[in-house]
Specification:
The chain contains 22 helices and no strands. The chain has 420 residues and is mostly helical. Helix 8 runs antiparallel to helix 9, helix 11 packs antiparallel against helix 12 and helix 16 runs parallel beside helix 22. The chain is globular.
């Protein structure tokens, strides 16, 4: 059986409003799967709520599962879950979680993170609050909190506690994003020594190999451990994306295209996270000189329903990669106009659109049009702000790679002109 997180059952079901002993075991299994990025959370929660429909924290976990991504449709679904939970009797700790969910549903990530931190200040062993706060830090590009938050609670944990490997894997990712690659690798390996099937820790290893430019070692690691991260995990497709990056770095363009066809877009997924990986890999294939062929129009069509989302600049940028790659000027211009309108909105999306989303997308459009001077103007201003997009360094590198290619093309044209 999968290792359980911090021993909530030791408290007994009486500590969880509406729980029964059987439902609590299912809840803990769901939380463990969530921590370790493995499948089973939703199924276990569904069974728990069948047994105990007034189980507040089971409703809360279901809401959190919907909120930790970048899909506005899932946020809408979380609202209904929150309303059901808010109508139930709850203790103080549960109400604190519901208030954090309320803030996230309202798109107030700063308030959500503050409320989650209040929970952790009272109970640094609250695995769920830590998991969600860590996810919010990642989505909002809050690198300072990403590292500091996990580090602040780590002393309360120990290797003998269920759930500790997942916490250590979170810490490893925060170290990697802070540029502390040796420490990140050490922490990830320690987590895997305790739990070899922690998909999050394998993902950290892929990032470490990427950022330390060890593509051959990264490719070998992912292939050697595919049974741990590639089956029944939430990160399987994304790890295949990492393998595609290693293949490109090793000059294996055809292999990267096969990875795209077989592992990234083989099932034509409509999930936003999957579309992000597809855009990010196909754009890099094109930068490396690969032939994307008819892949771009298919991907652009899949992104089209998200043009009006007005939710996440990280999504907007990856949608624009697909539109520009496909030469789909109509959709690119439509997205640009949506962003022009959105930049005046007093929302999180409005702010990130003003700061980085709109200039990034305009830089990508200029690059696709061959206007490298304009592309350099827009993309060259972004490095200091790029983290506000959210995501990881490896994901945001697509902007830097595009900028470098625009500079390279400019220099080549100048050299050709000088030669004549």
């Amino acid at each position: 059986m999968d290792p359980l997180p911090r021993g909530t059952s030791a408290k007994g079901p009486q500590a969880f409003t509406g729980a029964t002993p059987e439902a609590l075991v299912l809840y803990e299994r769901a939380l463990s799967a969530f921590q370790r990025w493995r499948g089973g959370s939703e199924e276990n929660l569904a069974r728990a709520l069948e047994l105990a429909p007034r189980f507040v924290m089971a409703h809360a976990l279901r809401a959190y599962l919907l909120l930790v991504g970048r899909d506005p449709k899932r946020v809408l679904a979380a609202k209904a879950t929150l309303l059901r939970a808010a109508a139930l009797p709850a203790n103080d700790a549960e109400r604190r979680h519901l208030r954090a969910i309320e803030a996230t549903v309202a798109d107030d990530y700063d308030q959500a993170k503050a409320r989650l931190q209040q929970i952790l200040a009272r109970d640094p062993l609250d695995a769920l609050a830590l998991q969600v706060a860590h996810s919010c830090d990642y989505v909002t590009g809050d690198i300072t909190c990403l590292e500091g938050r996990v580090a602040s609670v780590l002393p309360a944990w120990s290797s003998g506690m269920p759930g500790y490997p997942a916490v250590l894997a979170m810490y490893a990712f925060s170290l990697e994003e802070s540029g502390r690659y040796d420490e990140a690798e050490q922490a990830a390996r320690e987590a895997l020594a305790l739990d070899p099937k922690d998909a999050r820790a394998h993902h950290v290893m892929a990032h470490v190999f990427e950022m330390t430019e060890r593509a051959e070692a990264g490719e070998r690691w992912l292939r050697d451990h595919v049974s741990a991260w590639g089956e029944d995990t939430l990160v399987a497709r994304h790890c295949w994306w990492h393998l595609g990056l290693f293949q490109l770095e090793l000059g294996k363009i055809d292999a990267a295209i096969r990875t795209y066809d077989e592992r990234i877009r083989g099932d034509r997924s409509e999930e936003v996270a999957d579309l992000v990986d597809a855009s990010a890999l196909l754009w890099r294939v094109a930068l490396a000189g690969g032939d994307a062929g008819a892949r771009w129009p298919e991907l652009a069509a899949a992104w089209a329903p998200h043009i009006e989302d007005r939710f996440c600049s990280f999504n907007d940028m990856h949608a624009m990669l697909a539109f520009v790659g496909a030469g789909d000027e109509a959709r690119a211009l439509l997205l640009e106009q949506v962003l022009v309108d959105s930049q005046s909105s007093p929302t999180r999306h409005g702010q990130t659109t003003r700061d980085i989303g709109l200039p990034a997308c305009r830089g990508l459009m200029a690059f696709g049009q061959g206007d490298d001077a304009r592309a350099i103007m827009f993309l060259g201003s972004l490095p200091a702000l790029a983290h506000r997009l959210g995501g990881s360094h490896a994901q945001r590198d697509v902007l830097t790679l595009t900028l470098l290619r625009a500079v390279e093309r400019t220099r080549r044209r100048r050299a050709t002109h000088s030669a004549h």
